[in-house]
Amino acid sequence: MNLQHFRVRFSPAAIEDLRAIARQLEGATGDISGAVRRAEEMLTFACSASSLSQHSLQRDDIRKGLRTAPVGRSVVAFEMIRDLQTVRVFGFFHAGQDFASILLDSVGPGQG
Asked: Which range marks the domain in which residue 33 is found?
């Protein structure tokens, strides 16, 4: 299957996660351009279905079909819906956030 033709869709929570990470990085470093650049790098990585597929781990223990991929010190959580040729990004998590607990709380085990 050609992953180039997959559409990548971001949940509203994922977009807010990127904003929050950029604010956190700006607060920690005082460098707004660096914070924005880092958020853009995460977004660019997530927009590539083939990158996500190649670098991800299956996490059915959290949610059936969930995959996670590292992006530097961050993690992107997503699912690949092959029959719809879509990648659905649930969220971005940074610097040791407990993404498993956050995702379990938001969707429950095995729900979807």
From this structure: 3-107
Tokens of 55: 């670098």
Distance from C-alpha of 80 to C-alpha of 92, rounded to nearest angstrom: 16
Rounded to an integer, what distance in angstroms lies between the CA atom of residue 67 and that of residue 87?
10
Q: Kindly report, residue by residue over 63-107, the tens digit of the pLDDT.
A: 889 999 998 888 999 999 989 989 999 999 987 778 888 777 765
Is 78 domain-assigned? yes
Assess if residue 112 is contained within a domain.
no
Q: Does the residue 35 lie in any domain?
A: yes
d(CA 26, CA 61): 33
Q: How many CB atoms lie within 10 A of CB 54?
A: 10
